[in-house]
Amino acid sequence: MAELTYREAVARGIAQEMARDPDVVFLGEDIGKAGGVFKATVGLYEQFGPLRVRDTPISEQAILGAAMGAAMTGLKPIAEIMFSDFFAVCFDYIANEFAKSRYMSNGQVKCPLVVRTGNGAGSRFGAQHSQSVENWCMMIPGLKVVAPSTPRDVIGLMAAAVRDPDPVIFLEHKSLYSVKGDVPDGEIVDRLGIASIVRPGNDATIVALALMVPRALAAADKLKSEHGIDCEVIDVRSLVPLDTRTILGSVARTHRLFTVEENPRLCGWGAEIVSIVADEAFYELDGPPVRITTPHIPLPAADILEDLALPSVERIVERVKNAMES
Amino acid sequence: MAKIEDRALAPNASLNDDIGEETRLRMYRMQVEIREAEQRAYDLFLQNLVKGTSHLSLGQEAVAAGCAAAMKPGDLSFCTYRGHAHTLARGVPIEKVLGELMQRDNGLMRGKGGSMHLTSVDHGVMGSYAIIGAHLPIACGAAWRAQYKGQKDVSVCFFGDGTTNIGAFHEALNFAAVWKLPVIFVCENNLYMEYTPIGDVTAVPHPAADRAAAYGLPRIVIDGNDADIVYRTAAAAYEKARAGGGPSLIECLTYRYSGHSRADPAKYRPEGELEKWKERDPIKIYRERLKQFGVSEDIIDAIETYARRRVDEATEKCKAAPPPAVEILTTDVYANGGFAWRN
Ligand SMILES: Cc1ncc(C[n+]2csc(CCOP(=O)(O)OP(=O)(O)O)c2C)c(N)n1
Ligand SMILES: [Mg+2]
User: Fold this and answer.
1) Minimum-distance ligand to the CA of B264?
2) Could A109 and B139 be called an inter-chain contact, meaning their C-beta atoms sit closer than 8 Å?
3) Per residue, what are the HEC states of chain A?
4) Which residues keep their CB under 5 angstroms from ion ligand 2?
5) pLDDT digits (tens, 9 = 90+) for A120-155
6) How confident is the model at residue A65, as a pLDDT?
7) What domains can be seen in chain A, in order of their start residue?
8) Which one of A133, A219, A318, B3 is most buried, by most CB atoms within 10 A?
9) What is the ipTM score, two decimals?
10) Beta-carbon separation of A73 and B148 below 8 A
């Protein structure tokens, strides 16, 4: 067991897979010699050399296009897009190309690749460097989408993503990079599509993702100690495939559903979960499901405003308490 | 702006026989077969048997034939929606292509891709891409794999003049040059985007070649209607790439006879332009070339008759083929064969 930061876990997860399989290659801007702008890939260039860890020009389309071409012909590339907001300048590859080529070619073309990216707010970077874009990705048939919340999960899900035969969008949360956590020694490999109950509880189910997981956990502690409300917290981990069974099972026990989403409200992943629960577990519910989200706004830069925009521990406590009491 | 008069159309192509009879006959057969198949596709469209859209390369056959004839097995082609010619040139059966255009179960992708996405991995046709410029970076990636694994295949990427103004073109050219990738970019300059003449919207007369210097590449403009010239230029570029010399950008001057897509009557062309280009029809040029090299009229006729027969046979097979099986609607979204996104 070792204590690692989330950012160290990124490098360890990639190294684990590169050491295992020589077909795993890694490309992106400033990822090699510089170790990444978030210092999440430090040491990989030294360990695996310039042929496997390649610095690219500032060409997001070339990065994802090249990853796709390499994947189609036998490599297993990991491509970094520095900030997930930059998906907007290379979205063709995400939405039109590697997501659809298998289907359009009637199964001939395979794209086993991973796009990893810094996602989410908290750094006071403003509207173009802070977004949570999981819902941009989740709606595209052909993609898988994961977002780890702990250093251990970074490694396990990275391994699952690299070994997966489909294109996987791997969302690292920028505000989690410095968070520490215990990581077992040796190889860690998860499966995609498994949510985890990170705090068992009886009164309500709170479903969260990435940075919202520690906030939901902190809120659950307060709800219990200050209000006697015992919440179960589920870390979704993988949006596609989505572990609806774990969520539906929890709701069947607690009879209440809350989602905590960093993405702006419209078409957030929580809406899909609420709709599934409404469809399939309506009569289990003792009250209306509640979505706690960032409002339908671009994110502001100022700390006081950004903090107001994202679901906070206080807001989660407030919304859950009010809903449970009404 | 490039006018036809300004173009460096080839003088009498060299008669030195570096190409050889077998390759020449193969290139002629390819061109004729592509011409016949595409004309048939147009007829079938008029009969409402080709649905959706289709983009013909009538008049541009020499680029497809010359580039493909110079390839080796294992080399990879990346095409656009105007990709029937390049697909056929790699040896994909006519029936598979027409079947896809006619949305039949015998189509190359069983109707799941359509005319704009012809793909046959077994033939090295790694896809036809309908988002302008998207496949240039993808071809770079395939070339990167060859470089990384020490494999000797080249990736050849075809696109139009209009594609030189999109960002992905410039990203790919720089990327390929910096990484010295074994990728060949072939621009088919047919003078038009969909409807607008390329010269109206481009800062330089030769949309591809005049950009080559920006990426440290030699300026190459050739007569794209002469399959011999295309073949020689392509072969040299492939050889350079295989030897680790990096990418090439080749601008082929050519012309499409039909409109942009099936519904376009191409009214935007100046009078006489089409006729002028038809005088330099690639198939006409090549027929004469074969005769200059002593190929008998009988052999040439036989090639043409054979091509027609093959297209006729393919057409009949496609007409008899059923539509795609409905079960395939949800297959192959993910690698497990299905489309499940939840448990
Ligand atoms: C990104 C993008 N923009 C626009 C289009 C619509 N479009 C399809 S073909 C075409 C013209 C392309 O011209 P060119 O590159 O010269 O190729 P050609 O059709 O002449 O072979 C356009 C604008 C598209 N498919 N993708
Ligand atoms: Mg054109």
Assistant:
1) 1
2) no
3) CEEEEHHHHHHHHHHHHHHHCCCEEEEECCCCCCCCCCCCCCCHHHHHCCCCEEECCCCHHHHHHHHHHHHHCCCEEEEEEEEHHHHHHCHHHHHHHCCCHHHHCCCCCCCCCEEEEEECCCCCCCCCCCCCCHHHHHCCCCCEEECCCCHHHHHHHHHHHHHCCCCEEEEEEHHHCCCEEEECCCCCCCCCCCCEEEECCCCEEEEECCCHHHHHHHHHHHHHHHHCCCEEEEECCEEECECHHHHHHHHHHHCCEEEEEEEECCCCHHHHHHHHHHHHCHHHCCCCCEEEEECCCCCCCCHHHHHHHCCCHHHHHHHHHHHHHC
4) B 160-161, 190, 192
5) 999 999 999 999 999 999 999 999 999 999 999 999
6) 98
7) 2-183 (3.40.50.970), 196-325 (3.40.50.920)
8) A219
9) 0.97
10) no
Tens of pLDDT, residues B164-204: 999 999 999 999 999 999 999 999 999 999 999 999 999 99
Cα-to-centroid distance, B233 and ligand 2 (Å): 20
Whether the CB of B161 sits within 6 Å of ligand 1? yes
B89-138: pLDDT as tens digits: 999 999 999 999 999 999 999 999 999 999 999 999 999 999 999 999 99
Q: Is A265 exposed, middle or buried, given 0-12, 13-18 or 19+ CB atoms closer than 10 A?
A: middle
Alpha helices in chain B (DSSP H): 21-46, 61-69, 84-89, 94-101, 135-149, 167-179, 209-212, 227-242, 273-278, 282-292, 297-320
Q: Which two tokens stand for residue A227?
A: 């209000």
Integer angstrom CA distances of residue A45 from A141, B88, B148: 34, 43, 16
Q: Smallest Cβ distance to A25: which of B148, B328, B339?
A: B148
The pTM of this model reads 0.97
